[in-house]
Amino acid sequence: MRALPHPHIPAFASEGGVLRAEGLRSYLLELREAYTTYAPVPSVTLYVLSEGDWRALVPYPYGLAFQRSEGGRLSLFAPLTYPERLLHRFREVLLPLGPPPMEIPAFLDLNLGHEYAHALQVAWRLRTGARWLDEFFANYLFLLGLAKARPDLAESLLAFSRYLSRLEPERRSLSAYERRRGDLKSALWFQAQFTLKSREILERKGDGLLLAFLEAAPLDRKKGHRLLLELYPELKAWFAAFGLKGAPEAPPSPPPGP
To answer: What pTM does this model have?
Structure first.
């Protein structure tokens, strides 16, 4: 692998991956600048790997970018190329919706920023241990940074999220999502819902959620859930609508008219 040193985002690239690694790093550095006003932003190592190098280093199937924290080191893993089997899975899921607003590989590259947001959650002690809450906040944090650094890409993300929100997964339960029992369609649909709800929060109160979470860090499941609902009590009904076990009940329906 080729080492590409950098003070903020050092990278390692498999053979033939240098230009791709530099392009992805440039994108992440733009995002990084949007976050530096909130708290110290740690170094995050980027790996852009061929399938062979990926299999030698990590146990997960090749193709989808992910974030890993190990021994105090934060890392992002991205594929050198997206395997056709993965793109085929996406095309099958999206087929009923018609052509997507951007190419699938471009959307997957865009979402490397979501994984970068997860790395910041770890560094800033904002992980709660509740998967649904951590994913919701990562979507919020990602969209906040993208809107500041690249408004054009934020609009692309929102357009794709509106597109994905038209999916009709069988599993719409946050409890099932928490247990990772959903399929690709369910995962994409939830990410779309989280992103669109994050946009509403950002439009109403800007970066208030991030500031409140940073002040309360370190977070855990109870503290994160309580703080979120104290800041945005209207989310009680929204989360409860997904059937999350233990979520506050939605307000009762009004009695029928005469």
So the answer is: 0.91
